[in-house]
């Protein structure tokens, strides 16, 4: 059974930073982070292929950076210049919408 275990969420003030991490039990070609705010659909934040190709939502470009360590089967999301609208549950994903999901970690941006 494939497992994705997230860590690193929390409460941060606007303009602050957080780093999310996800450890997978197997190697997955494309891994990513999605988020879901209350009353909204789950949306892609960023994804990265095993070769390092990245994709970002327009709303986070220039502020968030996704990276991965293939040997450790981990993926990270460095989030800088956080805004209140970034508040959501963030989910680690492997293999796209029909793939594997972590349990989610809450990120709250508030003063």
Note down, in words, how this protein is organized.
By secondary structure, the protein is mostly beta strands. Helix content is 0%, strand content 51%. The strands form two sheets. Strands 2, 4, 5, 6, 9, 10 and 11 form a seven-stranded mixed beta sheet that branches. It is globular.
For the terminal residues, how far apart are their CA atoms? 40 Å
H/E element order: EEEEEEEEEEE
Helix percent reads: under 10%
Give Rg in angstroms. Answer: 13 Å
In percent terms, what proportion of residues is strand?
A: over 45%
By helix and strand content, what is the structural category? mainly beta
The number of helical segments is 0
User: Largest sheet at a glance?
Assistant: 7 strands, mixed
Question: What is the average of the pLDDT values?
Answer: 96
The gross shape turns out to be globular
Number of strands: 11
Task: List segments where confidence is low: pLDDT < 50 over at least 5 consecutive residues.
Answer: none
What is the compact description of this entry?
This protein has 111 residues and is mainly beta. It is built from no helices and eleven strands. Helix content is 0%, strand content 51%.
List keywords for this structure.
about 110 residues, mainly beta, 7-stranded mixed beta sheet, 4-stranded antiparallel beta sheet, 11 strands, about 0% helix, globular
Task: Summarize the SSE layout with pairings.
Elements: E1 4-7, E2 10-12, E3 18-24, E4 30-36, E5 43-49, E6 54-56, E7 64-69, E8 74-79, E9 88-94, E10 100-101, E11 105-109
Parallel strand pairs: 2-11
Antiparallel strand pairs: 1-3, 3-8, 4-5, 4-9, 5-6, 7-8, 9-10, 9-11
